[in-house]
């Protein structure tokens, strides 16, 4: 029976495959396997060879259990119970060779394993062994948790333990992420020692695929930090933020609250849905930007024409503006800036409500966008009667997903080109380096022209800058911004809507810089706890401005107040001699950094045409070994670009800007020399915004009232 037990032991000595990594767009780690250990207690005396100096089995189980209870989450008495149950199954032909301790004895860290071994040696405890294993590692904690999901160890009916994705990308791409274990066949004696001159037959392990996301770890961290602060200050029921590149559809960040730690599942509620994709909402007045776009495209928009604000009746239904009485006779432009529901009704009169619904379908509402994430919802556009089409024009009744709102808004931000959102960049086989899936930007048929998109952006910007605008507090320091606020009622499960202070879904869908948007961000805050003098748009604005200002600076988008006098478009130096390129860059006031030994420039960063301030770093890649520059003050994005072009092993700790480097300037390094950089985030100062009174602030609760 010892031979049989040892055979089992040998079968477990497989070549373990690693579960695939999940990384961000720059190769920064989001999820991976890390080394862990499984604890085994050898009970059989037959494990100890006659004449051995030290026993290979547990000679004093009580003492061993006492020791282990200090290091693993299991009481001494429970361990003894496990031992006793195992021993009770012994017969004349069967003897318990070894036992394990369930979940408590798995996923043991390297540090804990060493501590147990050291304590066992000091106290004379024998017979404890550790089997190398894998554990899923999430180094960033609460980080895009509902997008990434989690994987955990599971034991199947045959007793085999493996890591299985249970939620999010870990579950959706479980098959791709799961590797195939290898094995090593050999012959042993009864004690498990390999016999001399035995040939080993090795089948190599095949690691799981690497999934590279469009997510930018730095921007995602800006989102997580801002959400943590707002959560602590306002304690809302829910929050959601999605940050997108409107020119490509790439999702740079996606997070929601409540959130959880994927390693421990701490904070995980009964909601397992990714709200950006799998949940629908009534969007409120953010929908008005698409009503406006439809009217402009139909040439039914006259910004200076006037209408009577306050209320509008259709058949037996009356809708009202937020203040119920309106602002008298005002222009359509002012009506949009004030987020007037009644202005939407008159726009529908001009272009036709059925025409409007066709535009909404052209924007992709009412059907799935086809994002590379599971269980996407489609939402419902209400189109049975005129009153439903009317309330839809200002975001009530019909439902959408946040990702639909993002897709539709790309048409406005991207000069009439609507881009499909996506979150997977590529899937790579690490065993062959072959790219098995390469997701590209995909343009969708757009219902509006470039000219319409530009007009809409100008009007969206006016909601921030106009005295009548509802979006004043969403202004950014150094960047022009445009967008639309929203305050939607929350439907009850049994019909009707919630009522009372703060019982609304507050939102903002905005883009910047408004002339050529580089980022599109959607922020939702549901039922925040508001104190006297606070408005529902306050937490939304705090999220939006913090995330956008930090992200635009990180992306090296030049603030507009510097642009006209201080920026210079970068020339194309690819194919030119590096000496000439460096001289030309210095003459223009830039700070060129050479990668390689010089000669022909193979690539540059930033690219041709990028507008840069003087003293901005420009990277020039050539062939040969690289001499380290002084990284002090470099942004994380610039360091990542240097790492990509140079191929050096540069390791980053922290976010923000470089404050320390492990190897000094001038060191000649190869790809085998690790360089560690320490980064810190500077405090970002925000300019206080003008106080907005309750009437113009635009807490636009949409309602339909029987007339």
TrEMBL record:
<dbReference type="InterPro" id="IPR001460">
    <property type="entry name" value="PCN-bd_Tpept"/>
</dbReference>
<protein>
    <submittedName>
        <fullName>Penicillin-binding protein 2B</fullName>
    </submittedName>
</protein>
<dbReference type="InterPro" id="IPR005543">
    <property type="entry name" value="PASTA_dom"/>
</dbReference>
<comment type="similarity">
    <text>Belongs to the transpeptidase family.</text>
</comment>
<keyword id="KW-0472">Membrane</keyword>
<dbReference type="InterPro" id="IPR005311">
    <property type="entry name" value="PBP_dimer"/>
</dbReference>
<feature type="region of interest" description="Disordered">
    <location>
        <begin position="433"/>
        <end position="452"/>
    </location>
</feature>
<dbReference type="GO" id="GO:0008658">
    <property type="term" value="F:penicillin binding"/>
</dbReference>
<feature type="domain" description="PASTA">
    <location>
        <begin position="625"/>
        <end position="681"/>
    </location>
</feature>
<dbReference type="InterPro" id="IPR050515">
    <property type="entry name" value="Beta-lactam/transpept"/>
</dbReference>
<feature type="compositionally biased region" description="Basic and acidic residues">
    <location>
        <begin position="437"/>
        <end position="446"/>
    </location>
</feature>
<dbReference type="InterPro" id="IPR036138">
    <property type="entry name" value="PBP_dimer_sf"/>
</dbReference>
<dbReference type="Pfam" id="PF03717">
    <property type="entry name" value="PBP_dimer"/>
</dbReference>
<dbReference type="GO" id="GO:0005886">
    <property type="term" value="C:plasma membrane"/>
</dbReference>
<feature type="domain" description="PASTA">
    <location>
        <begin position="564"/>
        <end position="624"/>
    </location>
</feature>
<dbReference type="InterPro" id="IPR012338">
    <property type="entry name" value="Beta-lactam/transpept-like"/>
</dbReference>
<dbReference type="Pfam" id="PF00905">
    <property type="entry name" value="Transpeptidase"/>
</dbReference>
<dbReference type="GO" id="GO:0071555">
    <property type="term" value="P:cell wall organization"/>
</dbReference>
<dbReference type="Pfam" id="PF03793">
    <property type="entry name" value="PASTA"/>
</dbReference>
């Amino acid at each position: 029976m010892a031979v049989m037990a040892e055979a089992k032991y040998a079968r477990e000595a497989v070549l373990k495959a690693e579960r695939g990594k999940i990384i961000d767009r720059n190769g920064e780690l989001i999820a991976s396997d890390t080394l862990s250990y499984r604890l085994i207690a050898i009970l059989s005396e037959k494990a100890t060879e006659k004449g051995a100096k030290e026993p290979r089995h547990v000679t004093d189980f009580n003492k061993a259990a006492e020791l282990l209870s200090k290091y693993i989450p299991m009481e001494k008495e429970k361990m003894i119970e496990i031992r006793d149950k195992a021993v009770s199954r012994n017969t004349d032909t069967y003897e318990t060779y070894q036992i394990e301790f369930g979940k408590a004895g798995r996923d043991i860290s390297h540090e804990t394993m060493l501590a147990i071994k050291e304590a066992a040696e000091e106290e004379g405890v024998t017979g404890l062994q550790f089997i190398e294993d894998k554990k899923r590692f999430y180094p960033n904690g609460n980080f895009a948790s509902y997008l990434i999901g989690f994987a955990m160890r599971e034991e199947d009916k045959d007793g085999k333990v493996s890591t299985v994705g249970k939620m999010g990308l870990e579950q959706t791409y479980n098959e791709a992420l799961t590797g195939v274990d290898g094995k090593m066949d050999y012959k042993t004696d009864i004690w498990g020692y390999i016999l001399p001159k035995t040939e080993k037959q090795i089948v190599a392990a095949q690691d799981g695929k690497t999934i590279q996301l469009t997510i930018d770890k730095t921007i995602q961290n800006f989102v997580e930090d801002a959400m943590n602060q707002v959560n602590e200050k306002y304690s809302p029921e829910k929050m959601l933020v999605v940050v997108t590149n409107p020119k490509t559809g790439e999702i740079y960040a996606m997070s929601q609250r409540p959130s959880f730690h994927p390693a421990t599942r701490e904070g995980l509620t009964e909601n397992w849905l990714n709200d950006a994709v799998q949940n629908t909402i009534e969007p409120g007045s953010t929908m008005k930007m698409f009503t406006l776009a439809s009217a402009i495209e139909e040439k039914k928009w006259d910004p200076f024409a006037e209408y009577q604000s306050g209320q509008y009746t259709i058949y037996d239904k009356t809708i009202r503006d937020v203040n119920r009485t309106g602002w008298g006779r005002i222009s359509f432009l002012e009506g949009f800036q004030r987020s007037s529901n009644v202005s939407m009704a008159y726009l529908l009169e001009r272009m036709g409500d059925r025409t409007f619904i066709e535009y909404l379908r052209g924007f992709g509402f009412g059907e799935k966008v086809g994002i590379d994430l599971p269980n996407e919802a489609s939402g419902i556009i209400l189109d049975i009667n005129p009153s439903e089409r009317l309330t839809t024009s200002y975001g009530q009744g019909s439902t959408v997903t946040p990702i639909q709102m993002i897709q539709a808004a790309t048409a406005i931000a991207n000069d009439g080109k609507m881009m499909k959102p996506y979150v997977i960049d590529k899937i790579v086989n690490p065993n062959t380096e072959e790219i098995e899936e390469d997701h590209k930007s995909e343009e969708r048929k757009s219902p509006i022209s470039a000219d319409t998109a530009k007009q809409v952006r100008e009007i969206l910007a006016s909601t921030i800058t106009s005295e009548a605008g509802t979006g004043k507090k969403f202004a950014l320091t150094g960047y022009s911004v445009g967008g639309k606020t929203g305050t939607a009622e929350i439907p009850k499960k049994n019909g009707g809507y919630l009522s009372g202070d703060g019982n609304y879904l507050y939102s903002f869908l905005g883009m910047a810089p408004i002339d050529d948007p580089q980022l599109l961000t959607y922020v939702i805050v549901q039922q925040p706890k508001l104190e006297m003098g606070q408005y529902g748009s306050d937490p939304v604005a705090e999220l939006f401005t913090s995330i956008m200002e930090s992200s635009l600076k990180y992306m090296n988008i030049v603030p507009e107040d510097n642009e006209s006098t201080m920026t210079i478009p970068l020339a194309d130096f690819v194919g030119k001699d590096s000496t000439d390129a460096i001289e030309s860059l210095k003459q223009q006031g830039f700070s060129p950094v050479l990668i390689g030994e010089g000669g022909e420039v193979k690539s540059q960063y930033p690219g041709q045409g990028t507008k840069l301030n003087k003293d901005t770093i420009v990277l020039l890649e050539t062939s040969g070994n690289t001499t380290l520059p002084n990284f002090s003050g470099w942004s994380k994005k610039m360091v990542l670009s240097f790492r990509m072009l140079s191929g050096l092993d540069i390791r980053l700790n922290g976010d923000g800007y470089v404050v320390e480097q492990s190897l000094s300037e001038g060191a000649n390094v190869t790809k085998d020399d690790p360089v560690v950089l320490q980064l810190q985030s500077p405090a970002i100062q925000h300019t206080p915004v003008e106080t907005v009174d309750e009437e113009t602030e635009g807490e636009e609760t949409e309602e339909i009232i029987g007339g």
